[in-house]
Structures are given as C-alpha cells and as structure tokens.
Design a protein that fits this description.
The complex is a heterodimer of chains A (246) and B (235). Chain A has twelve helices and no strands. By secondary structure, chain A is mainly alpha-helical. In chain A, helix 3 runs antiparallel to helix 8 and helix 4 packs across helix 6. Chain B has 235 residues and is mostly helical. Chain B has a single domain, classed as MetI-like fold, CATH 1.10.3720. The longest helix of chain B has 36 residues. Classes of the chains: A mainly alpha (246), B mainly alpha (235). The interface between A and B is large, with 44 and 54 residues.
C-alpha cells in the first residue's frame, strides 16, 4: 500500500489520485451546499416558529433507508431517461442520495440549536425592539451555531464516506480505487483508496472545526483567554447523536 | 451469479418483488438472516464494550476528552474502507462476514462511548448524593441508580446505532459479503438493458422493515427497563 502511494504515477496519471480526490470533493461539496441551502433556513424557521417538527421526524425516518439500495434504485429509474455522454447518468442519482443523507443531521441539529436558545435571551431581543427576522438572524442563529456546526460536520462525514459507494455505479471519486482494487485483486490500491477516503474525511472535519472556532461567538462558545470571567458555555452535549450511513 | 440461471419473474415493475420473493425465497431469507445478525450483534457487543469505557470516561474526568476524541476519529473512517481493511488487521478472509461484524462493532463503540458517558453524567447530582446518603456503595449506586437512570439516553444512542447498521451492512453487500445488499447488486446487474426493479425494491422494503423491527425491539426493551417513566407520564 505504501509502495502504491509512493508511486508518483498513481497520483498524477489521468484518473489518478489527484483527479479522483478532486471529483470526490466536488460530489461531496455539491451535495452539502444544496442540503445546507435547504435544511438551514427550514430548520431555523421550524425552531423559531415551534411548528412543523414533523418534518424533522420525516427526515429522520429517511435514515432507515439503505443507501446502496436507494442509489441503485434511482440509477435504474433515471438511466433510461438520461441521454448524452458524460457522468450525468451516475452523478444525478448519487447527488440525490447524498443530499437526502445530508439533510437530516443538518435539519435536526439546527432545530435543536434554535430550540435550545435560552428563552430569556429571545425575550431580551424582543424587548430591544427586534422583529422576528432580526431575532432569527442576529440572536437565534448565532446562539444555535455550535449545534448547527455539529450537524454540518456529521453530514460532511457521512457524505464523504458515502460518495465512495458511488464508484460502485461507475462514477469517479476515491471509491474507484476501492472497487477497482477489489475487482482486480490489487489490494494495495484498494487499501490506499480506503485510507485516502478516511484522511479526506478527517481533513474536512478539521477544516470545519477551524471554521467553527472562528465563526462561533466567544459569548456562546465560552472560549475566552484565561483568567477572564467565563460564563456558562452552551452545552453541546444534547446534540442529536450523529449517524453513520456508509 | 446463480440468479441468472433461474427463470426471472415476468413482472419487472417494482411490484414484481412479491413474485421475485417467492421464486428466490430460500436465498432471500438466508440473506435476511445474515443481515439481521450482522446488524444486531455488533450493537450488543459495542454496548458491552462502551459501558465500561463510558463509565471510565465519567469516573476519571481526564480520560473523557481522549476517549471521546478517539471515538470521533474512528467514526470518520468510511465503512467500506474498514470492511476492506479488516482482513489485514485481524487476519480473516476478505469476504468473511466477521469483518463486517467487527467493523460495525467498532462504529457502535465509537458512537456509544460518548452516549454512555453523557448519559451517566446527566444523572442529577442530588440523586447520586441521596443514594450515597442511603448507604449505597459506589458499585451499588452505579448499578442500581445511575445506570438505570441513564437508560433512556443510552437507548436513544442504541436506536441510532441499530438503524444505521442496517444500512451499513447493505454497503458490505456491494463488495460481495452475503446479505440483503446482494439484492441491490443483483438488481443492478439485471438492469443492464432495461430496468429490472423486483430485487431492488424487495431489498429496500426488507431493509426498512428490518430497521423498524430492530428499532421497535430497542424501544420495547427500554420501556421494560424503565417502568418508572410510564408511571410519571401516565402513558
């Protein structure tokens, strides 16, 4: 495996590690951006209005669906209707599955984050003359941010891990090495592919952890320089436990 | 593929799954059986390992950050990566179901260590003090007071783990491990010319039913283990 990774040809060749790493990132990013664009505003609204919690229940029920089955079902359904060359025929079902997978954690944790905002804080915001939209944007969102991040991070892990399975259909990404290596009994390639996916997942999580550190207000995270008065940090312990689907 | 030899059900629509099931009953039931124990056993094993680890994380506070961070790191490893790497780690054959069982146990432990630690930590301090005041030893307090009170939190984690496992086991099917995931790969291979839905829809329906059944089992077990909650909520 080390030897395989040490061969520069395996990195730079067309369809090599750099290419597949880039494809893998693209698939994951598209799905995460779309899922966040859908789940974040809806989650903020549900949490703010206190209505529509059934949507969270529905989204959570989707988790019981087997990812591989859904992927293959969508592919078989869509394939006859997609003509033309390129990866669209594989990409579309993959993105749909990845988006479906990323929505529940982001939605659930956003709703939980907004609901966990101290009612006194919300009252104070209203007392200062803020309107509904302002309360959501300037009070509830910043306070919910640690939990929102935990949802986005768990969604990212799942999406990166699951994008591997897309290679089973014939799409690119790091899963190519895992499935091609398995098929051709090139175990060095297979294990290197597996290692690369794990490293990519860890790297993405680190990037998000950094982003969280710099975007979450100190008043919320309780991350103050030593020997200043530290308030009660918002407990992140009641984040909904993350799932792992692939 | 043995399935190619047999006569395919005439109906290739999603509803052809009933005919498909009766044509391939033995094989499908066999896969369902494998799938069931591959989903359930790792969670039980994972819980048995996570309980003492979670307790340690609570009892000796300094062990909490390293334990929870390690668990989080284990969780970032994609399942397919763990499935294929397992034979190198524990020296089994590549398609041995044991690989899947061990890999899923690792995930279950990773998920449950934090849940157990947080569940034990959520026991109100005055309750623990009352138990001590009544003369319970540390061990009695843990087994008779803290652990039972943590059951709802731990059970929530177990439900998540069990449902996630059903989906993960199917992933192992794509590399050839016998379970319901093989229905998906079979359907994929049979759909080359035109869509052939029966095995795919059958697999999805069976997976969802299995997830539901295991989830209900955990919920039922939790209700039995926490009779006082029913007394309070009156349900």
């Amino acid at each position: 495996m080390i030897a395989w990774l040490n061969d520069p040809g395996n990195w730079t060749a067309p369809g090599g590690i750099f290419d597949q790493l880039w494809s893998h990132l693209q698939y994951a990013l598209i799905a995460l951006v779309v899922a966040a664009a859908l789940a974040l505003p809806v989650g903020l609204l549900i949490g703010h209005a206190g209505r529509g919690r059934w949507l969270v229940t529905v989204a959570n029920a989707v988790r019981a669906l087997p990812v591989v089955g859904l992927l293959i079902l969508l592919y078989v359904m869509l394939a006859p209707h997609i003509h033309g060359r390129g990866d669209t025929v594989y990409l579309l079902p993959t993105e749909i599955v990845l988006i479906l997978l990323a929505i529940p954690p982001i939605l659930a944790s956003t709703v939980a984050g907004v609901e966990n905002v101290d009612p006194a804080v919300r009252d104070a915001a209203a007392g200062m003359g803020m309107r509904g939209g302002q309360v959501v944007r300037r009070v509830e969102l910043p306070n919910a941010l640690p939990l929102v991040f935990s949802g986005v991070r768990s969604a990212t892990l799942q999406v990166i891990a699951t994008a591997t399975v897309a290679a089973y259909l014939g799409l690119g990404g790091l899963g190519r090495f895992v499935y091609d290596g398995q098929a051709s009994q090139n175990f060095a390639e297979r294990d290197a592919g597996a290692l690369l996916v794990a490293l990519l997942a860890v790297a993405a999580d680190l990037v998000l952890a950094l982003a969280q550190r710099y975007t979450v207000s100190r008043g919320v995270s309780g991350r103050f320089p030593r020997r200043t008065l530290v308030g009660d940090p918002v407990a992140t312990a009641d984040a909904p436990p993350s799932t792992h689907t692939a | 593929m043995p399935l190619h030899d047999s006569l395919l059900a005439q109906d290739s629509s999603p509803f052809g799954m009933f005919g498909y099931f009766s044509d391939h009953r033995d094989e499908v039931l066999n896969w369902l059986w494998y799938h069931t124990w591959l989903s359930a056993v790792p969670v039980v094993a994972g819980l048995l390992i996570a309980l003492p680890l979670g307790w340690v994380a609570r009892r000796y506070r300094w062990t909490y950050p390293p334990l929870v961070t390690t668990a989080g790191l284990l969780y970032t490893i994609p399942s397919i990566a763990l499935f294929v790497a397992m034979p190198d780690i524990i020296g089994t054959q590549i398609l041995d179901p044991i690989n899947v069982a061990v890999a899923l146990t690792v995930y279950s432990v990773a998920l449950l260590v934090r849940v157990v630690a947080d569940g034990l930590g959520a026991v109100p301090e005055d309750v623990a003090q009352a138990a001590t005041a009544m003369g319970l030893t540390r061990r009695q307090r843990l087994l008779k007071v803290e652990l039972p009170l943590a059951v709802p939190v731990i059970a929530a984690g177990v439900r998540v783990a069990v449902v996630a496992n059903v989906s993960l086991v199917a992933v192992a099917g794509t590399i050839g491990v016998p379970n319901l995931g093989q229905l998906f790969t079979t359907g994929f291979q049979l759909s080359v010319g035109s869509p052939y839905y029966p095995p795919i829809t059958l697999g999805i329906v069976l997976c969802v039913l299995l997830a539901l059944a295991l989830d209900l089992l955990v919920v039922g077990g939790t209700r039995l283990a926490t009779p006082w909650r029913r007394a309070v909520s009156g349900s």
